[in-house]
Specification:
single chain, alpha/beta, Alkaline Phosphatase, subunit A, 14 strands, 646 residues, elongated, 4-stranded antiparallel sheet, 8-stranded mixed sheet
Length: 646
């Protein structure tokens, strides 16, 4: 039967190309295999064949119907043949583009391409993403196989489809049996399973061993993208926790005893110190993970400035980012709300206004300003900042064109030059009588890794990535040296923290290096040096700064003052997985409640202790899920939440 043969040829072609992309992903992440056996690698590819088959069968569904009809008609009309060629070519081309984008995306975020990846492709910032890709040579390398495979695929598809011009006449019984067989194969291929009693193939079927990379290697990124796009966060995630139960748990965690009828997390914070009107400069450092610092075990001497600050500052050594992208780091640090997958928390209609750090400080007489190195529309940062009481926002359009060196705008040292100018302007305008809050977002430690001419690494043998870490650290020193000569320096608190970390090879579902970041609060005249080793999170920055300033305010957030309260666990997300950590244990799960293990991470132990430590795993799971369930309740309904969030 000709339709069966043609369908099988196209299926094999699709499977072969998906196999090539999976092979490229394997070779570009060979360091993440660790001690996995050859048999485990083979099993990952066999699982991949299942996901690829499901994806291929969805692509083939409509063409197969045309092939079966043509079989009985005895020919394929030109219009149908041309439509089928275009349909398969376009759909397959899109799927190959996703596979190509998936490789650098996984290398950056250690999760397969999903709906969150499309946040960067919103109107107004697509150009920035494209310029970033073209500015990084290794990204261009990934585009080459996509183009080659696309051209070859379309050429072969045209030859195959053109072979459907005529079919053998007669043989109705033979064609009927063949058509039924083809339809049945297509049906089971789309399901990914033969047993009708089982649910169709799902993401959990890719997990089979303790190696996080191999567990994800079998996934087809098109399947992941479509699955993540169809998920309904509010209705599906954490549905086993009742809203009242989740809110009660979070209130308990936050030490809220007096119930507020308007908003369950709202509590009045009265400072035990006199208000001081210190200035605040908050520097959110791109990709600055804790293990870049010698204080956290790095032996490459990448960050002499930050290491020096650690000895002179209030250092939080067990501090964690909320997520693995900058937009989440900004949101959680300033708003003290957890970052929830999927979506960008800085988008929305209307834009939400939170009881946030800039809002509370503005209400208390502070000038508020933000300075960013790149396009102000990227991640909707400009609109979100305006909606949340930043009075002035400096961005790429405000800098001389010759200072812009790549898609991310100006390098860090120039950004700090403009920051000094901005602070001087504010201080001069008000004669030094009005305190200020300045939020600075750095970006040089981000691909494409372009080292400015001003800096020469003392280690020419280092990778470009390590040299950029050195440069980012150098820029912090450059900034503080200039700031120390200013009259406002002695009355200013500097807060340095990472927006997120960077992945390192790990046996765990989410690399802790991705979320373990430094928090350094520095002011030689105002802050006594101390290392605080309690568990802490980005959502705690806002309340902690308020405590240092002696400001009375209404706290309606998930954050605590780390100098007054203790947090039992920190929690974080990456894609559709989350983690909960204390100073000994690390628990991980996906958002559907499927456990990914309990690990003794201090020893880098890959053993899953969930069976031996069931109560601990249950407690950590409940802690994390209660917070995210509460986040969904309080932040999910835009109409209802507007009366709470200012």
């Amino acid at each position: 039967m000709k339709s069966l043969k043609i369908s099988f040829k196209i299926y094999c072609l699709l499977i072969a190309i998906f196999f090539i992309f999976r092979l490229i992903l394997l070779f570009t992440n060979f360091d993440k295999i660790d001690n996995a056996s050859f048999g485990e690698i083979v099993k990952a590819f066999l699982i991949g064949w299942k996901f690829d088959t499901t994806t291929a069968c969805y692509i083939l569904a409509l063409p197969v119907i045309f092939f079966i009809i043509s079989e009985f008609v005895g020919k394929t009309y030109n219009i149908i043949r041309i439509f089928t060629i275009w349909f398969i070519s376009i759909l397959s081309s899109l799927s190959f583009l996703v596979c190509g984008a998936d490789i650098p995306y996984y290398n950056e975020f250690i999760t397969r391409f999903n709906i969150s990846a499309l946040n960067n492709m919103k109107l107004g910032q697509t150009g920035t993403v494209i310029k970033m890709i073209l500015g990084e040579p290794k990204f261009i390398i990934y585009i080459i196989p996509v183009i080659i495979l696309l051209v070859l695929f379309i050429w072969v598809i045209i030859k195959i489809i053109n072979g459907t011009k005529s079919f053998k006449k007669g043989e109705i019984l033979y064609k009927s049996i063949g058509s039924v067989v083809l339809a049945v194969l297509l049906f089971f291929g789309m399901r990914g399973r033969i047993n009708l009693d089982d649910v169709p193939l799902c993401l959990n079927d890719s997990f089979f061993c303790s190696n996080n990379f191999l567990n994800q290697l079998g996934l087809n990124p098109n399947y992941v993208l479509l699955t993540s796009a169809m998920e309904d966060v509010e209705n599906d995630y954490f549905s086993n926790i009742e809203p009242e139960e989740a809110i009660a748990e979070v209130r308990k965690q936050l030490g809220i005893e007096v119930e507020n009828e308007d908003f369950p997390l709202s509590r009045k914070v009265v400072s035990d110190k006199e208000r001081n009107n210190y200035n605040v400069v908050l520097v959110l450092m791109e990709g600055m993970k804790a293990v870049n610092l010698e204080h956290f075990g790095n032996e490459q001497h990448l960050t002499p400035v930050l290491d020096s600050l650690c000895d002179k500052s209030l250092l939080f050594s067990n501090f964690y980012a909320q997520n693995t992208r900058t937009c989440y780091g900004i949101f959680s640090t300033l708003m003290s709300y957890p970052s929830m997958y999927p979506g960008n928390p800085m988008y929305g209609t209307p834009l939400r206004k939170y009881e946030s750090m800039p809002s509370v400080l503005k209400e208390n007489g502070y000038s508020t300003a933000a300075i960013i190195p790149h396009d102000k529309q990227f991640d909707n940062i400009y609109g979100f900042f305006l909606a949340n009481d930043f009075e002035k926002i400096i961005s790429e359009e405000d800098y001389p064109k010759n200072e812009i060196i790549n898609s991310w705008g100006i390098p860090d040292h120039m950004l700090f030059d403009h920051s000094i100018e901005l602070i001087d302007e504010i201080a001069t305008t008000y004669g030094g009588d009005k305190p200020f809050f300045i939020n600075i977002l750095t970006v040089s430690n981000h691909a494409p890794f372009i080292l400015p001419d001003i800096y020469t690494s003392p280690h020419p043998e280092y990778t470009d990535e390590n040299k950029l870490i050195e440069y980012a650290d150098f820029s912090i020193g450059y900034f503080l040296k200039k700031a120390s000569a200013k009259p406002w320096f002695d009355n200013t608190i500097f807060v340095f923290l990472g927006d997120h970390g960077r992945h390192c090879a790990t046996p765990y579902p989410i690399s802790l290096d991705f979320v373990h970041i430094p928090l350094i609060i520095y002011s030689p005249s105002l802050i006594e040096p101390e290392t605080n080793s309690q568990i802490a999170s980005q959502i705690d920055v806002f309340p902690t700064v308020m405590g240092l300033l002696g400001i009375d305010y209404n706290n309606s957030t998930f954050g605590i003052d780390l100098l007054k309260q203790q947090r039992k666990y920190a929690y974080f997300m990456n894609g559709n997985k989350y983690g909960v950590v204390d100073d000994e244990w690390y628990y991980s799960s996906d958002l559907k409640g499927n456990s990914l293990g309990l690990y003794h991470y201090q020893d880098n132990d890959a053993t899953n202790y969930e069976e031996q430590e069931k109560e601990k795993a249950i407690e950590m799971k409940f802690y994390g899920e209660s917070n995210w369930k509460t986040m969904l309740i309080l932040n999910g309904n835009r109409t209802e939440v507007s009366r709470f969030l200012r």
